[in-house]
Amino acid sequence: MTTPPAATQRPRILTGDTPTGALHLGHWVGSLENRVRLQKKYDCYFLLANMHAFTTRSEKPGEIRRDTIEIVKDWLAAGIDPERSTVVLQTEVPAIAELSWFFAMLLPFNRVMRNPTLKTEIETKDLGDKYSFGFPMYAVGQCADILAFRPLLVPVGEDQVAHIEMCREVARRFSQVYLNVNPKTEDPDYVKAGGLFPIPEALVGRIGRLVGVDGKNKMSKSLGNAIFLSDPPDAVKKKVGKIFTGRQSATEPGDVGNALFQYVEAFIPDAARVAELKDRYARGDNIGDGHIKAEVAEAISALLRPMHDRRAAYEGEAGDRKIIEVIREGTERANAVAEQTLRLAKDAMGLGFWRRTLSVDRPH
């Protein structure tokens, strides 16, 4: 059997997004700001899960391609540095699809369908029993997305933790079945005990579930309650102004647990100012919702301003070409890692008949 490679100098992270539209503030506080921060210390792989986008939009490949490019613009605008981190296009990493097939054999069908995130998506997207055969496969595919790169951490939003738990089950099961690792082995010791995959841990952002500007539901493009990372200041101000609190006057004591104050705590960086606003609001000390909304909107726009400046470098056809080159270079690096993982997995399964190599051509 092939000897597993030595660990990189920096521990590895894998996370990503399905290209379904522009990223918003919920993505920022839930995962994206963690990615920007962690890329300084970790070997980061950020996956464009365009294959998963086909589970619900297979008839709209042009939209998926467009959204794939746009989401990378959001990443780079937010501060992802392609010199430090690797941007990966899922459909150009064949090892992911192969591992998905093998991992599917390690998961009972009922276990996949009990995944609470999968069940929620079926409900919220009103799929009923009309979803494709491939739709539940994306939950297995997410395990392959992650384990192909053998990361230690997976920065995700709160709603993705169930997916990570299933991935952890697959990682354990593979090493138990094919590498004879004792099922009683503690998670941090799996590789030391002869396992192929580290048991990855979910890393939830500082706010696992940011409420949308409707004040009720999780921020979501499909619900029309999102503030996008690309929104200009006037759009931010208008959207923040919609946040409903139910408070009638500036002298009425307010509930600092309401949606507006989630935004205060999330986006006003001065802790002393946040404490002052909460105190005055709770006491009804002549401070109105409108004043607080204006302050929140300005704080959000200040956060987004440098993102807009960075994004400007990638607009237009020339910008698209730059983005595609970033994706190509990252995917070439990613294939080297994923192919190595697949080779080790096949060796463990008795499938290591010969070696193959992959290359990524430059786009025409």
What do these coordinates show?
Residues 1-8 have low confidence and may be disordered. The strands form two sheets. This protein has a three-stranded parallel β-sheet. The two termini are 39 Å apart. It has two domains: 12-209 and 316-348, Rossmann fold (3-Layer(aba) Sandwich); 233-311, Tyrosyl-Transfer RNA Synthetase, CATH 1.10.240.10. Helix 1 links the parallel strand 1 (12-17) and strand 2. The chain has helices at 25-38, 50-57, 61-78, 94-104, 109-113, 116-124, 137-147, 161-179, 233-240, 259-267, 271-283, 289-311, 316-348; strands at residues 12-17, 43-48, 86-89, 153-156, 201-204. By secondary structure, the chain is mainly alpha-helical. Helices cover 50% and strands 7% of the residues. The chain contains 13 helices and five strands.
Brief overview:
The model is unreliable at 1-8 (pLDDT under 50).
Evaluate the radius of gyration: 22 Å
Task: Give the domain tally.
Answer: 2
Class of the largest domain in CATH?
Alpha Beta
SSE order = EHEHHEHHHHEHEHHHHH
Largest sheet: 3 strands, parallel
Main sheet strand line-up: 1-2-3
CATH superfamily heading of the largest domain: HUPs
Structure annotation, total helices: 13
- How many DSSP-defined strands? 5
Low-confidence stretches: 1-8
CATH architecture of the largest domain: 3-Layer(aba) Sandwich
State the helicity in percent bands: 40-55%
Write down the CATH topology of the largest domain.
Rossmann fold
Mean pLDDT: 91
Strand content: 5-15%
Distance between the termini: 39 Å
- C-alpha geometry: globular
